[in-house]
Amino acid sequence: MKIHLRLSLLTLIVSLLFSHHTLANEPTTPQIHWQSVNQTIIDQHIIPRYLQMADSGAKLSQQAQRFCAATDNESFEALRLAYHHAMDDWMGIQHIRFGPVELFLQYNRLQLWPDKHNTGSKQIRQVLSQKPHDILDAERFALSSVAIQGFTALERLLYPSTPHPNAFGGAGQPTYRCELLMAITRNIADIATNVHRDWRGGKVGFRDVVLSADHGNDYFDSSQEVSARLLSNLSTQLQSIVDQKLMLPLEHRKMELAESWRSRRSLRNIQLNLQALEDLYSTGFSGSVTDAKLDAEIRQSFRDAITSLEAIHLPLYRIQANTEADQKLQHVLESCRRLKRLINNQLPPTIGMTLGFNSLDGD
Length: 363
Description:
2 strands, two-stranded antiparallel sheet, mainly alpha
């Protein structure tokens, strides 16, 4: 009996020791309060950026009206400057691809790009030729083709390949081109205002929907699902930078394939994208990464890419192959590829997450 008792005690002790050893050596998934992460991202990253874009969009629309009332060189340059300010703010929130901006094709109505079949140019030419006034009404214009809406259409009017003297008319007598310009800018302002309002307010703001995800709702099953969508948006934007904004024009050495090539801001767009993604990572995800080495590597990769871009002093369309500027651009590309691998492959398992759907898959 004593021998049997001793054997039982010995078996229990060995079992406990083995269990402790196994648990001590198993990787652990951090317990992260995803609702808190989401709230921080919404309040410190998403809503302030949409607010900034709503403000610059309103100023863009106002400046378009001022220009069409005067149509002089000074007001035209002021309009171009307002375009750049609004475009800067759009680049700072372009990575968020879900939520209110998904409704009514608002994301594509803000910017149709890439435009694989040059649909925008064809439809803008057609509209300018036929001059249909009925579509200039705000409600009708919002329902018109996305190809004649948004920043890409506006850029075609502000930076034409062949400038047309008096294309916008004289003082007090704006041409149809100027009326279309006012319709486009007003529509951009309306969309930006609507998206910001829908995140914050209404009967139920989308912020409330996101922060109630712990209990499940019509949009999300959990707060972690929201966080996964945000991380997927970060990854998707990195893929867009690598595949669309850099590789597309560089592989073919055809800079007309680059984003915003007409206004010579292709590299600026990428820089602003990366700064916004760095802010999203730092604001929402960095604090959840228990692997200090991985966190430092991600942060350094962001810095490398942004610093490399800042060292390029030529617009993308002027960079020739096998030049010093081209070598710097290749370094930017490699830094972004490294970032994409870190975000896609190493970050998700470290924070106990599976990367969500990538909206560029299949493009």
